[in-house]
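In this supplementary section we document a worked example of the pipeline. Step one takes a protein sequence of length 136 as its only input; no multiple sequence alignment statistics are reported here. Step two produces a three-dimensional model, which step three serialises into structure tokens for compact storage. The input and output of this example are shown verbatim.
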Amino acid sequence: MGIGFTLLDEGREAVVDAVVEDDQVLIGADDVARATGWQHKPEGLCRDGVCVPLRDPAVLQGDRLDLVRLAAALRHPLALDTGESVAYLGPAAADRAEPLASLRAPDFSLPDLDGRMHTLSAQRGKKVLLVAYASW
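The serialised model returned by step three reads:
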């Protein structure tokens, strides 16, 4: 029996049973399927008619999947904090590249200094200068 571990994937949050040893997180194959939609099958990890072969035999350890190796097999970035029992499985590189290839910024809304909301889509057809600032 493991601990309650929060797995975030594609905006979904699932608490799964995990065994955490150092930086290794082992999650039951059924919990992985429930949290991410990826099912472990003889041909590999499968979701929505797509199967990714598991070339690294260490992905599967007994009836559990190694989360770090699972993310590597799927080519998804993984942010992992074992101390807080949480992980975020990011979108695949191909999914992240699609918006960049379109050269179209995603729509968003932000307030101005007076609190009035402005959306990027309302500026369509105009030249727009976006200035981003981060304090870190």
